Amino acid sequence: MRRMSKACWPSRRTELVLLLACGSLLGGCASIGPKPWQHDLMAQPAMSVSAYPLQTAIDDHIYFSKEASSGGRSFAGGGCGCN
Amino acid sequence: MSRLRGLVATAATGLLASVQGHAQDSAVDGPSSDVPTTNIDAALLFYHENGRVQAIEPDLDLTQQIGDNSILSMGFTVDSVSGPTPLGAVPSDLPQNYIRPYRIIPTGTQVTVTTASGGSVVKLIPPASGATTQTLSATSTVPPNTYPLDPTFADRRIAGHVGWEQALTSTFKIDSTVSYSKEHDYRSESVDVNLSKDFNSHNTTLSGGINYESDLSFPIGGTPTPYTQMSGVWKGPDATRSETDAVLGLTQVMTRRWITSLSYSYSRSNGYENDPYKIISVVDPVSGEPISQLYENRPDFRRTQSIFLDNKVHLDHDIVDLSLRGYEDDWGVKSVTAELRYRYQLSPSYYLEPDLRYYRQGAADFFHYYLVGGAALPQYASADTRLAAFQARTYGLKFGVVMGDGSELSIRVEYYGQYGNGFPSYAIGQLRQQNLFPDLTAATVLLGYSYAF
Lengths: 83, 453
Fold this sequence. Notes:
The complex is a heterodimer. Chain A has helices at 12-29, 53-66. Chain A is an all-alpha fold.
């Protein structure tokens, strides 16, 4: 047996609903957001979604080594984490 | 009049910003003379656990814009980790001896029995009849009522990556990164490819990526067969593992002040998922005394999925960043993570950023503090407390200096605490008096330097 029985993964119907929700969300995005000349605050480096990527990667590697969960923000990254 | 001037200034700055580009912008617009084309990002991490592992890790990342539409990136990391680490075994009110193989030598080599790192004692395992090699093993004694740690752990990791980003149009780009990581007992190679497309005047970015990773495990002492007795004998051959990950992301600039990012990640891995150094105690059903120590046995297949939501809000001077993550896998682990950062802008050049992180996970289905002697072994079992139920909290404070020449210097200190249930109600015999999950606390100091020119 390669798979634990308790797995709870989205059913095909749930996947379809999620897909439709994402599509609607994307469509809805067209009407929100500032005008190009209102991007002054967003242009600041600290407002970038990945403002400090190196520090984030370091944090993620520490948590990857100490906790059962990893990834989410980006790919989990390699290594043994055997300590 | 002054209000009109302010509006004009805001509009002018915004227009300039939209040309210069943000996270969502593309390089196809071309670099203007005052836009940095080279970024250096360096960090030095000091990590120290209470009575356990400590590490030092220097990191260096470089990005270089090539022409108008391409960015080359590369990074390099070295870390040295050493210190006692949990074996997985339960404590006892009696002394306990542990043994692990650590080197193969030709038969007949003169060996001086001595004290190895961490106070363990080197022992020569008699060679099998006709064998040309024999094994050196380290034995260590854990005092009564002490949480068993392996004192011999030490590792060094070297990791690097090279990436290329190509803007195909002003709203569409592709990037790929090749990564390599090598430890003295583990090697990991991976390649990822990501696509991103901007919509809605760069206010919306849809992204997707896949990553493939191939790992090779070659533990010190060989790869143990799960559920075999811990011993000083050299174990089996190298073991492999592969992993495929996919990430879908949506980033939306909601207002002039607010940006939000939502991503869904999925991964599946096959192969050797054990920690080759971890054992699990089999205890007497009445006294709770360990009667044997077996190598752990995890499934050879894992699927994980997570949802990550990040929100940043600009408050004219300060910035609030709140991220949330939900995670689950088919090992039965479920977790939630919340992280809050508040960047308090002391002046245009100085900022202070406190951060809080809360993490809570449920145990894997096959996590057991110990197994009970006389009962059938479960299909899988691990006593690695990283798979136990626990909470963790991080408190941090960062101080940064943004200099006018495009460089930034920062120092961050953090305190991490991990707290589980060390006294489960079902504990047997002497185990009722033992702490099966001592708190893990760690302090980190992170120095950062970046320079864009």
